[in-house]
């Protein structure tokens, strides 16, 4: 195992530090905005700006990496990312936060694209599964650690913003010192939405619906938790429990979807997400213990949906189309994730914080309906013709999708 991970130790360390900083900022900004008196729509636009930055970064960052190399590009992205939380601390103004959270999204996409495309070239058929499993553990663990760092200081102060900047800056050090040779530039994928729809309408529904629901949840969950009676010191735990639920779901849901129709798994997960979302919707104020428990169930339900949809699309697509299919899925996810936070914010403003789960439940009803309809229109693919599901972190970069689709990924 040590020999497998040695070439990517610096990559994993740099990625983990970045993801911890991003996990901290992802909870800190909506929580601080809520405490600062930002409206729900203003907070929702912070999430929309970040997702817009991710989408833009996935389109332009591979070109930057190809031009200057992985290490130089990584250093540039971390330097710019370091600037964002510092400026956000100096000017806690919605418009400033929209701009710099969006810029941070571009940088995060570039950072993870550099890491994941580098891993793609280092991995072989024999060790790819071990590498990606380790990366998944690092991804989930780092995000949860970053979210919990918010307990180190008062969200109304500048210290947590400074800590986020320190983490982004520190992330450049391991990769800058690595002796591993530079990999070739990542391939620029082609976006083919119509072709993806012809291949699998169910996968399109899964990708677009997940963007609408998950984009809204991650942007507005701290606001929901605080305004629905969760003590402020437990808000990061509420969000982290969703991540834990998603991590727990990856292996069993992947294994099940390898043996039965993936669309059945998608429909089941979507129905589960509806039930858990409605339970969170009706709890209202208080019931903190129930909310924390349901957070795990919610993460278990929502987080595998994208990757099961992704695996289903790859089952039906030609092998040489895998990267293009993945990039098209990403575009659908990201475009919906831009709109999702704003839709949820409007509902939360007009109805109350629990309306966040009215939004997610409605989206998952539609996903389930589309998938069930598709089950009646096309026979299931035999298990021996499917590409094995491989658990992957939801890092949302084309490189990550390419890593997950080569040589039997899924």
Could you characterize what this model shows?
With 410 residues, this protein is mainly alpha-helical. It has two domains: 2-177, Up-down Bundle (Growth Hormone, Chain: A); 193-408, Growth Hormone, Chain: A (Up-down Bundle). 78% of the residues lie in helices and 0% in strands. The chain contains 16 helices and no strands. It has helices spanning 2-5, 9-36, 40-68, 70-90, 94-122, 128-148, 159-170, 172-177, 193-199, 201-227, 235-259, 262-283, 288-316, 322-350, 355-377, 398-405. Helix 2 packs antiparallel against helix 5 (94-122), helix 4 (70-90) runs antiparallel to helix 5 (94-122) and helix 9 (193-199) crosses helix 10. The longest helix has 29 residues, at 40-68. The chain is globular. The model is unreliable at 396-410 (pLDDT under 50).
